[in-house]
Amino acid sequence: MFQNFGKVQPAETSLSCKSHKLMLYNEIIQQCHPGHYHILPLGMRSLEKLIRVIDEEMDSIGAQKISMPCITPLSFWKKSGRWQIKELYKLKNRQDQEFCINPTHEESVSLLFSCHAPFTAKEAPIMLYQISRKFRDEMAPKYALLRGREFEMKDLYTFDSCLEKAKETYENVCFAYEKIFNRLQVPFVKVEASTGDIGGKISHEFHLPSNIGEDILYICKGCNHGVNKELIDQSKEQQCPKCGGDLHFTSGIEVGHAFLLGQKYSSIFKATFIDKNDNIIPSQMGCFGLGVTRILQAGIEVLSLDRQIRWPKLIAPYQLCIIPQKEGYQSKETMDLAMALSDQIINMPNLNGEVVIDDRLHMTIGKRLYEAKRIGYPHIVIVGKRALESPPQFEVILPEWQECQFMSVDCLCQILSGVKTI
Ligand SMILES: [Zn+2]
């Protein structure tokens, strides 16, 4: 495995965010230059699983995956009036033509749609999404993947023939987002939010509550309705706009954002439908972002202990780490047993490719166990002396258990058969 523990990262002591420290120290990520991070093998495995979860939920609402260019010309952004956005990364080619490296794709997708337009109401909703690198010229990147200059984002754009249908689509997408966070088993809140630079009529944000989050959220104690502080009139007494209940506030890491855009982009770029009376009308659009690399880190931030990563289990890089005895008396036998156990487990339909054998036999079991706990494998199995008994007894450690348990291979497989993977 591409890892070299104990190589302390120079900036580490000055970091104030738990997930940032844990991800650097356990070699999930590594800074390349400020605001830009390498994602190392363990991080990539988790990220790819997260992408599969998102793909499944997008597919379940009928969204189709595409890929749009990262670089788009000045003309797109002049047309939408967004060329002046400060965070746009801009560049010129050898012919002195100006481009931007996209942070978002409303312009491109509307143009794409317009090439095939007009659509009929029967064909709606049309939902196109991509998961790709996005770029933002952040003044002060911090907390690694939580606020970087380069990040992985899922952006979905929806096109409907009327506002009523667009609202229905909006609700469906928000529901799919809730399903994603529920599958990851991370606590989240959905709050009303401002529409900002994107524009539009309705907007909601999805946050993972955390004290390092940069947004202040007001949550109703009565009905759980949430509002971003930006929308609250600070001069008035704070009460829930829905039920009048008392509000409490929390900070949150924004991981998703939904906008009902209306016709802002579709009218500029002629992304149209034909209505009942054969009139050509701009479509009612929605756009929906998920910060994919941000979810990866925010999930770790909200679930982990100070010195041990806790992954959202579904997307842990590996589900199981097997630790055979240190080299010496009978270590060949325990290594063989570890290999046989691994073979048996990877033959289970849910665990193919999910097992790591820590074969650094020059290290003690204790040292490797310490590291395995720190990396946060959801299941750790030690193949020690008692594995040489007949029948073999394996020492099983789950992070949420108070103590380890010795068990037979059948017992272990029974526990593992219930593990959800993707
Ligand atoms: Zn309320």
TrEMBL record:
GO terms assigned for molecular function: ATP binding; proline-tRNA ligase activity
UniProt xrefs under CDD domains: ProRS_core_prok
Coiled coil: none
A biological-process GO annotation: prolyl-tRNA aminoacylation
This enzyme's EC code(s): 6.1.1.15
Transmembrane segments annotated in the record for this chain: none
Reaction(s) this enzyme catalyzes, per UniProt: tRNA(Pro) + L-proline + ATP = L-prolyl-tRNA(Pro) + AMP + diphosphate
Keyword annotations of the record: Aminoacyl-tRNA synthetase, ATP-binding, Ligase, Nucleotide-binding, Protein biosynthesis
Domain annotation Aminoacyl-transfer RNA synthetases class-II family profile: ranges: 21-312
UniProt keyword annotation of Glycoprotein present: no
GO cellular component annotations of the record: mitochondrion
Protein's UniProt name: Probable proline--tRNA ligase, mitochondrial
Organism: Acanthosepion pharaonis
